Amino acid sequence: MNAELAAIIVHDIKNALGVLEGQLRVLATDSNDARAGQAHVTCLTLQEKLIGFLTLYKASSQGLTAHIEALSPHDFLNGLLHHQTITQENLKVAVAHEEMPVLAFFDENLVGLALEAALQNATRFAHSAIELSCCKHGDGIAFTVRDDGPGIGTQETKPSTGLGMDLCQAIAEAHVKGKQHGQARLSNHPDGGALFELILP
Amino acid sequence: MNLVPFSRISSLRSLVIDDMPTMRQNIRMHLGQLGVTKVDQAGTPDEAIRFVEAGAYDLIICDYNLNKETNGQQLLEFFRTQNMMSPMTMFIMVTAESGYNLVASAAEFQPDAYMLKPLTASKIAERIDRLLEKQNALLPINKKLERKDLAGAIVECDNVLQSAPKWAVDILKTKATLLIELRRIDEARTVYSDALAMRDDLVWAKIGMARCDIISGHLDEAKVVVQEVLKQNAQYIEAYDLLAQIEEAQGNNNEALDALSRSSEIIPSARRSRLVGNAAYRAGDLEQAKTAFDKVLKHTKGSLTAQPSDLLTMAQVHVDTGDAEAALTLLATAPKRYAESKVFNSTQAAVSAQAHVKMGNMDAAAQSFEIAKNAAGKNPSEMAILALAKAAFSVGKDEEGAQLISQAIKADHENKTLQTLARKALADSGKAELADTLVDGAIKHCTGIIAEANALMRSAKPDESLAKLEEALQSLPENTGILMAAAQLYLLWMSQRGVNADYVKRVNGYLTTLDRLIPGNDRVAKMHRFLRDTITKAAQKKI
Description:
The complex is a heterodimer.
Chain A: H1 3-30, H2 34-61, E1 69-71, H3 73-82, E2 92-96, E3 104-106, H4 108-125, E4 129-137, E5 140-147, H5 158-174, E6 176-177, E7 180-181, E8 183-188, E9 194-200
Parallel strand pairs in A: 2-4
Antiparallel strand pairs in A: 1-3, 4-5, 5-9, 6-7, 8-9
Helix pairs in contact in A: 1-2, 2-4, 2-5, 4-5
Chain B: E1 14-17, H1 21-33, E2 39-42, H2 45-54, E3 59-63, H3 72-81, E4 90-95, H4 97-105, E5 113-116, H5 121-146, H6 150-163, H7 168-181, H8 185-198, H9 203-215, H10 219-232, H11 237-249, H12 253-266, H13 270-282, H14 286-300, H15 308-320, H16 324-332, H17 342-358, H18 362-376, H19 382-394, H20 398-411, H21 416-428, H22 435-458, H23 462-475, H24 480-497, H25 501-517, H26 522-542
Parallel strand pairs in B: 1-2, 1-3, 3-4, 4-5
Helix pairs in contact in B: 1-5, 5-6, 6-7, 7-8, 7-9, 8-9, 9-10, 9-11, 10-11, 11-12, 12-13, 13-14, 14-15, 15-16, 15-17, 16-17, 17-18, 17-19, 18-19, 19-20, 19-21, 20-22, 22-23, 22-24, 23-24, 24-25, 24-26, 25-26
């Protein structure tokens, strides 16, 4: 099967999933059964994965261009957190507001996809807390996702970070300003845990 | 102004536009979860147009992919260019990730937000909340704008910039545009350079600088900026329009046409093709005009987005290229609803008359000409009157044709495009030698009236002066030059002798007409302000 056909099929499935998501949401709201809520979250995660795949496919086939707008990182991160569904109990996800610029220039849809992927990844390793932030970085900005897990290098990381990091890298590179372009990197924080950074010009 | 209370999503009157019923249902369900109960659904662009015509919406959620002819972006363009949507309506464009970049980067008309599929209730809520917060923050500016108080709106821009800095980019954009409208060019430049200091690759600010250059008469400098922008961002449609404007002002009609053609390759919309077609027609390039209008007609065929003027211009192009039969065949395909328009009926008959002459049917031509004349009425539109003049010349009624050309120019003697088209109509009719006498003569006639009125005012005969203009407006109700002179002289009269309720009503009437004829004109904006100030001062004196 060629890649184009695959993309069309995935696209179709994604639309159907969208319908399923709506139905499950209603079910989850109306029903007292916790399993309905879980099914809804599973569906949301699956949707995110598919969009990630499609975006990556697009990046490799036609390239991505960011639609840069002036946005409040504060609003953006709060919004991201708001519709993020964290299933793990005892996991605290918060936005760190120190040093956050009032305005930043980025593509909110693309950066949203990247940070959701990073956040999904962090939830798999974090012990009890994840922190999201945005600060100035040179002339541009850096979004970070930090967890308090064992850090990178643990044998578990391999299977799914691959696609996630590729997606983040593609999204970072789509942010171009003059001769500079963005960069995504994953490292160990000096105080422990893994640190994901999305640096945008 | 109808502002939805902040965070009162449930009271939003909304419309969902998507060709797929399941997706429409889905979005409707999401909105239902947010408590939104008023949700209309449209499956086609035409259905959407009918809904928007019939009701006011606070929120429109539109899928980018609608049908083969019209996509969401073109529908938005139609709503905006036809002034069908309130500026307070939030328009959200939904795209798939595969089309998102393409759609967003080459959009001439920006929606309030782009959202990627799939939508979820919480994502929609978050975005609407943010849009409502922005509307709320910018409300003081928009309130002033609604009263046409541009200077007041600029002051509010500075206030809101302090109180809500996160909307800085929107505010700076608005502020600079207003400063340009008021011809406060140096201040506008400062705003643009402030924006560029925030981020040096903001295309709108660079284009704004070019606009300042154009107004200050530095066309060459403006051209350099615009070309630089296009080198780095070939998708930026506004830059092509500006380039075309500069080239036309420098007398380079072909280069202007070329700039517009390039823009229509990037956005192959009906509107873009129409711009190319009109420019080509003015430049006398009938082949290109034909190709462009052919695209427009194909694009809008059978849809409510179709415009009568496209069909008429194409028919005229056919006549001009000698293909009279094609013109008549085309006119016969006009949708029934066009017959409700006086302009359409008279222009259609006028073009038919010309076609019949070319085919040797003089009786049919004479008959069509009479129909055209009757349908045109007392103050025919620019398009109708020029077609009528051409028809008159073609049926041998030269005197009537000449009189119509003169009448057309007098109706709006400061309109340069009209002058070009009138000269072209004469040349096409083999009467090029009459152009100077008729066109310049008509212009002189109008400037004469204004000069006389001014002279009367100066020699302390204000009533005679005003009567002179009133008389002229009886026969030339839409002449922008005379309307401006009249508004100005009434204002002058009142500033010297005090407010007169009847005169206030008249000035308001003139300014409203001017707003319709030449929207965004800075002289008109100034007069609006002056009128308001005069009334306020008079009221204060009374107290």
